[in-house]
Amino acid sequence: MNYAIREVTVPAAQAAAAGKELIRLNIGDPNKWDFETPEYFKATLRAAVDEVDNGYGDSQGEPDLREAIVVREHEKNGISISSDDVYITAGVSECINMLMGTFLEPGDEILVPGPGYPSYAQYINFFEGQTVPYRMIESEDWRPDVDMIRKRITDSTKALILINPNNPTGAGYEEKDLRAVGDIAAEYGIPIISDEIYDKIVFDGKFYSISNLASDVPRIILNGFSKVNLMPGWRVGYCYFMDENGLLDDIRNGFMKQMRARICPNVPCQAAARASLQGPQDYIVEMNRKLKRRADFTYKRLNEIDRITTNKARGALYMFPHIDLKGTPWKTDKDFVTDLIMEEGVVLVHGSGFCEEFGPDHFRTILLAPEESLELAYDKLEAFLKRNANRSQRPRTMRLMIENAISTTSSAIVRASVMSSDVEYSWSSTVKW
């Protein structure tokens, strides 16, 4: 398992321990910035703890929340599903875990977007499946490469994953491209798993849900309450099945067996999730207003920096710039991101962590931070590149940081790792004076 988004917290913690102030642009957590869970969500949660018996709940999820999701999906996408089609999970991550455990036998293949959210590849690998990436075309606003999808389908392909709006690129897919993907899925009888957790975070264009495809395409749509509903720490997600011909009956049975084995989702938090669907939604308008302004700033500022180019984000919380590493001391984007963390305290995520084939020479940043924080981070990024891009070797940034810790601390124990161009050094130093 190698979840890049949080793996970078390891060098970040080392940098912080050595006295570096961090700007954390690695995790898509709105609540760590100036977005706050609406008070009526919190009030509902507090009341739920007092009003429910605090015992176990329904393994599939509380019926009233599932009914609220049915209403939400009809209002938003114009579709008709029943509460029996809806399954509540501990965030979308648990849903991914259980779906991959249900779909896969060793050697089975899943088509995933490249780049794409790394949890899919991690759980595919965990269950001994094969991750088969298909290209997102950067020069065409990260649209899916439909021709590559067709070419990479084999007899072992069990499902195709879409992430729309996309993490990490911020792309929003056009209806014609999604219909083309749907046509291929119908032709080969391959189910589509569509992650739509950012469906209401769209700044440019119109969101199109895979739920609106023709009924001959078996689909599982994933969504949750961490992003749009600003409750990431409460861990409530859901999925629903659209499968008129019963092609996914075995998958549903296996999925439900896993849900019963893990007992039930958090009951009080489900009450708050239901309230978030039924109460005022004006906070989403303000959220999108701030995100669009920050996305526009990020697009403009990053394209001003030598060696960096980026497409605009159309939705979600991220941007996925390209970094030209030719002629620099960094052999990989991970080297680049690590040294940036160590030297400047700016925490980004290396692009190869989102796809080894189509992610290298990129990094992911978030759009959540206020403009002043983004400006400071990108000023540091630009200074870092100007200072180091033409060097023959990578900067010995951790050694400099340790020297700084020694000079500013009367007693320190510093443990760190430092990278040169060819060798990783590590040492432990106890300093007293």
Account of the 3D structure:
It is a single chain. This protein is of the alpha/beta class and 433 residues long. The protein has two domains: 4-35 and 283-428, Aspartate Aminotransferase, domain 1, CATH 3.90.1150; 39-278, Type I PLP-dependent aspartate aminotransferase-like (Major domain) (Aspartate Aminotransferase, domain 2). Helix content is 40%, strand content 18%. The protein has 14 helices and 17 strands. The chain has helices at 4-7, 9-17, 39-51, 63-77, 91-103, 118-126, 146-151, 175-188, 249-261, 267-278, 282-303, 333-344, 371-388, 397-408; strands spanning 23-24, 86-89, 109-114, 130-137, 143-144, 157-163, 192-195, 219-224, 237-242, 308-309, 318-319, 322-323, 346-347, 349-350, 363-366, 411-419, 424-432. The chain has an eight-stranded mixed beta sheet, with helices on both faces. Helix 2 (9-17) runs parallel beside helix 12, helix 3 (39-51) runs antiparallel to helix 10 (267-278) and helix 5 runs parallel beside helix 6. The longest helix is centred in the last third of the chain and has 22 residues, at 282-303. It starts with a helix and ends with a strand. The model is unreliable at 405-433 (pLDDT under 50).
